[in-house]
Amino acid sequence: MKSADLLQQLDRQLEQLAQAVEPHANNRTARARFDIQLFHCHTTRLGDYLLEVRQTMAQLKQSVKDNRSESVAWMAERVVLQMSALQRELATQKLRSSESRPTPVRENLYEKLAEHQDFERRLRAMISDRESLLGVQETLVQQQQLQREVAALEGRLQRCLQALKRIERGIENRERNG
């Protein structure tokens, strides 16, 4: 099948998806629904995600036009994954409508603090383990894999530390304001 035919087929599926999303496009959900690796936007409205799928589709068409085959394959897979995720979300709308909006319950910040401190401790241990393994790896490929793992774990650690700071500020604010 030619890429033009595949693009037409994807366009048709996208339009069907858009019609299905339309009644729910501006409804807000209790929280964002999709992984940030699949969608760049992190909102609570399905319409915003549909807009991103349309943008990805436009990028795919541009990649086809520019004859960038690696980019075409990646963009096509991304469009399909994004559309599938939206279709799954639409299929669960009836179940989600029974989900209550989260009531602003006074969360136990001390429990969250302890949980995140545990995350921090475990992440630091995992980084230390990977770094100690790094010196004994025999091949460059193994070393590079461990370096990638360390980098990913360090990113997670930074996010954990940021969350810890937010929780600590929340505790301070709560104690200051009674």
| Form type | flat
pLDDT averaged over residues? 85
How many runs of DSSP E, i.e. beta strands? 0
Alpha-carbon distance between the termini? 67 Å
Task: Assign a percent range to the helix content.
Answer: over 70%
Order of helical and strand elements: HHHHHH
Largest sheet: none
The percent range for strand residues is: under 5%
Evaluate the radius of gyration: 22 Å
Q: Can you walk me through this structure?
A:
The chain has 178 residues and is mainly alpha-helical. 74% of the residues lie in helices and 0% in strands. The chain has helices at 3-21, 46-65, 69-91, 93-97, 109-134, 140-177.
Please outline what is shown here.
The chain is mainly alpha-helical.
Keywords:
mainly alpha, 0% strand, 178 residues
Strand and helix layout:
Blueprint: H1 3-21, H2 46-65, H3 69-91, H4 93-97, H5 109-134, H6 140-177
